[in-house]
Design a protein that fits this description.
Keywords: Membrane, Signal, Transmembrane, Transmembrane helix
Number of helices: 3
Largest sheet: 7 strands, mixed
CATH superfamily of the largest domain: Immunoglobulins
Strand content: 35-45%
Bound molecules: 2-acetamido-2-deoxy-beta-D-glucopyranose
Radius of gyration: 46 Å
Domain Ig-like: 128-200, 205-294
Signal peptide: 1-18
CATH architecture of the largest domain: Sandwich
Order of helices and strands: HEEEEEEEEEEEEEEEEEEEEEEEEEEHH
CATH topology of the largest domain: Immunoglobulin-like
Number of domains: 4
Transmembrane segments: 298-317
CATH class of the largest domain: Mainly Beta
Protein name: Ig-like domain-containing protein
């Protein structure tokens, strides 16, 4: 008989505690300083009760004693919290403009016409700052890089961004295109990103090329400018020009200049040959492909002279009057007769 009674009481107690309950959707929140959070919450009580009052509390250590203090009496929470629940089953709370001091345990309490009830459980809220760091911050291409997001939260899910794009791995071998500004965020709150930190990736000169500025064809006596271009970080700061003559059997290279631009004010045939630019920064150096310069004798004028001279000589021979006429007459007659009608001379 007694056994049955105890059983009945226990059963009753279970029913009662099931009827009276507060449930938090999440037990833990990790939130970035300055943002806001909604602590999602629902509560239950026997159907014949009705709710008169609700309140949220924070667990606080006061004079060495752990107490629950109503948010509404705490000046630091003034205008920063809002009850989003109701007097039925919803007890959600919104906290805004979160500060690190808001970190702690939060409790819900409600009062019906018969009982006041505290939530047994609490919600733990961590308010954190995010501090992105990169180790090391300056690397050479190929080095390992580790991204770290400093936070006071316990193992939050962190995501990384480089210049706004998601970075999938927080550890990687740096490539040239990994350079940029990195920031971290908590996955659930992507919009609250840490201050960015820059990753600088150094690499030796790449894509070294020579830009040639010259007349075409390149005639002796004209000028030519060779400009060395490259992609490098830091920018190339030393250049060497190498030359191999077209007229020499030896493949030996001569150093013919330094500086980004190689100028030859007046080219000669001997300048014909291949040119190579070598660009260098503190990481390393590399060379351009060979550039061939072919200098041509100013043959145009020679050809004209060679072609025209015999004609002039022949024509002069035929046209010259074989008389003893005065010098002036002679010149006049050449100018008049020959320049207009040379074929008529004979
Ligand atoms: C009830 O709870 C939800 C979240 O679970 C919240 O969005 C909503 O605003 C709450 N309040 C009411 C009155 O529905
Ligand atoms: C870089 O990381 C890889 C694995 O990600 C590892 O195998 C390698 O040894 C690391 N290199 C250095 C220099 O630490
Ligand atoms: C990174 O940020 C700095 C200044 O904050 C800016 O000068 C630089 O251009 C940024 N880099 C990239 C790749 O956006
Ligand atoms: C080098 O040239 C290649 C091909 O044109 C290009 O894809 C690459 O981005 C260049 N590298 C750099 C660092 O500019
Ligand atoms: C190449 O030559 C032209 C005309 O002589 C000049 O306008 C131009 O600036 C030169 N370019 C370079 C890169 O020297
Ligand atoms: C090129 O090599 C050949 C044979 O080795 C030699 O006879 C000739 O003189 C060389 N020419 C020059 C310009 O050095």
């Amino acid at each position: 008989m007694i056994k049955v009674l105890i059983c009945l009481l226990l059963h009753q107690a279970e029913k009662v505690s099931a009827a009276w309950s507060v449930t938090f959707e999440n037990q833990d929140y990790c939130v970035v300083k300055g943002s806001s959070v909604e602590l999602k919450c629902s509560y239950n009580y026997p159907d014949d009760e009705s709710v008169r009052e609700t309140a949220w509390y924070k667990g606080m250590l006061q004079d060495g004693i752990w107490e629950r203090v109503k948010l509404s009496v705490l000046p630091t929470y003034k205008n920063r919290f809002a009850y989003r629940g109701d007097h039925v089953h919803n007890c959600s709370l919104v906290l805004q403009d979160l500060q690190e001091d808001d970190t702690g345990y939060y409790y819900f309490w409600f009062d019906t016409n018969r009982f006041g009830r505290n939530s047994k459980r609490s919600v733990y809220l961590s308010v954190t700052e995010l501090k992105a760091s990169i180790r090391p911050r300056r690397v050479s291409a190929g080095d390992n890089v580790t991204l770290e997001c400093g936070t006071s939260c316990q193992s939050p899910r962190i995501i990384w961004f480089r210049d706004g794009h998601i970075v999938t791995e927080p550890e990687f071998r740096a490539k040239i295109q990994d350079a940029g500004n990195y920031s971290c965020a908590i996955e659930e709150l992507k919009s609250m990103q840490s201050d960015p930190v820059a990753l600088d990736v150094w690499y030796s000169p790449l894509n070294v090329s020579v830009e040639v500025n010259r007349s075409s064809p390149l005639l002796t006596g004209s000028s030519v400018t060779l400009t060395c271009r490259s992609a490098a970080n830091p920018a190339a700061d030393a250049y060497t020009w190498w030359y191999s003559s077209s007229f020499s059997n030896s493949s030996s290279e001569l150093q013919v200049g330094s500086g980004q631009v190689l100028s030859i004010a007046s080219v000669e045939l001997a300048h014909s040959g291949t040119y190579i630019c070598q660009a260098e920064n503190r990481v390393g150096q590399s060379r351009s492909a060979e550039v061939l310069l072919t200098v041509e004798e100013t043959v145009g004028i020679i050809i004209i002279i060679l072609l025209v001279l015999p004609v002039v000589v022949v024509w002069a021979w035929k046209c010259l009057p074989h008389s003893d006429a005065g010098k002036e007459d002679l010149i006049d007659s050449i100018a008049f007769t020959c320049s207009i009608t040379p074929p008529l001379c004979s």
